[in-house]
Here is the input.
Amino acid sequence: MRQPPRLLRTIPALLLLLLVLQAAPVPARQARAVVVLSFDGVRADALQGAWPEVLRGQAAASWSARTVLPSLTLPAHVSMVSGVGPEVHGVRFNDWTPEMGRLTLPTIFTRVRGAGGGVVVLLAKPKLRFLVPADLPAEWLAFPRHRQAAVLDVAAQRFRQERPALLFVHVADPDDAGHRHGWMSAPYLAVVREIPALVERFLAQVRAAGAWEQTLLLLTSDHGGHGVVHGSGRPEDVTIPWIAMGGLARAGVELTQPIMIYDTAATTLAALELQVPPQWQGRPVREALAAAPTGR
Ligand SMILES: [Zn+2]
Here is the structure.
């Protein structure tokens, strides 16, 4: 029996290919990426003192952003990723075990994933798994991998390999040093002084991956501290750094507008051209972005 013409034979295959392409999820904005680096316990004045001229010219930076009350790790991080304050999310506890369940509010993790974007979460404290839906893998980097240089190395590697739309990285070293030796003590400041070089090294990897133009890096913190504690409304506890870098950031700008920790969530979505939920208190920090995104 004669074979049908070659073109006819390939049509079923072409139709199948078309169906597969149609069924594939549409990535959010696959080229764009936001990296959130949360350095636990970094006071704005401590980082400002260590921030070199070379990075000043590359960043849109605020040294007077504020966290929420209580100025504690879990409530603050919930605000950072959910776009709302404790009066809305209701999380005031700072200890968590898996039996307590996970945060059920919409977050940058659920919104980005819902839009088809890849999400990678690296955490240096196990309790922060509370932030992440149980079915979204979040890697807890236990000691000694949780040392900040090691965490940033893992983060850069994951960024280059997976190119997620959202990479969220939590670093615990500054908070550890603050509780052990005191905020603004010599050992605490030594840890903070390492941060700019770590960020530069991370950004070099972003450039090497060819992703600079489409990447926004947000460097911030969950709270500051005084003595060996934090949690109060004192300026030393609530004033945090908020710094935008990368190709999607406006370079060489000192941000003067009031910035709240929950603006991180809104800025993340806006940079990815995703809609910011209208019920969020957080607003995109447009002054920090190179071009006006189409989000709210
Ligand atoms: Zn903390």
